[in-house]
Here is the input.
Amino acid sequence: MKIRDIDLGEKPVFLAPMEDVTDPAFRLMCKRFGADLVYTEFVSSDALVRSVGKTMQKLAICDEERPVAIQIYGKDPGAMADAARIVEEARPDILDLNFGCPVKRVAGKGAGAGLLQDVPRMLEITRAVVDAVKLPVTVKTRLGWDDSHKIIVTLAEQLQDCGIEALTIHGRTRAQMYTGEADWTLIGEVKRNPRMRIPVIGNGDVTTPERVAECFARYGVDAVMVGRASFGRPWIFKEMKHYLTTGELLPPLSFDWQMDVLREQVRQSVARLDERRGILHIRRHLAATPLFKGLPNFRELRIAMLRADTVDELFALFDRIRTTYGSEA
Here is the structure.
């Protein structure tokens, strides 16, 4: 699969853009374990235009994570075009437009998935950004606003006509948020549309190596994007790539090995931010990691781990977890 001249290989697996998750350290770790393309957290176009410091920091990328995409969102065509030019100076490989974020503070203000209720404006934004930069421009969106307005088959052609070079579809409506099951049938319909010439990337509920292989086989997508299943489990890309290559599950990774990866995530998070903010940032991964699922009598340790305020305190708990559960996990 290629996006313009960027060769992403056969059956590539991508790390989805996720707010407060896909920071540089996490992207690099997922890349190390096999992610073929990684995305930044989404970036506000209005904040970029105003040069808000915290937002500008989100443009920081490094050569080790390439190919990498920077994703922006907003509702004003002029501001989105201006933000795109700012992003281009950061030299990502791809510029992605977020037309899929369902959260109220974004969609409720007419950006992200909110633009599924104003397709003319979405297309105006897309054309403005494509015209503003030389980078390949891609889009990530959803099936539609709700079950009564699943417009993705028509919308995909319209976006392609605006000049985008790949389209990612999350198999839910905005009304679903992240609930219910992702519906891949319409993603497959978009891919089978003979008028579609650009790569189609599927996203939603891709949580296992078997599922990623099924998505390629059943729906014919060009790539699969993994989101929440990577929380506290960056090695999921290693598992998926092994299965896609061999048709066999990767032998189970040891409990100690996985604990070491989580420990490294903590170190990198603290190094990038500081001790307090780094630990706050990593709690989402520690709360979601499947590593601790099903461990007997783990509740008190889990609570203590998610309340730890220092690296020393957290790592002491890690040592206790390893001693208690390492041999039986």
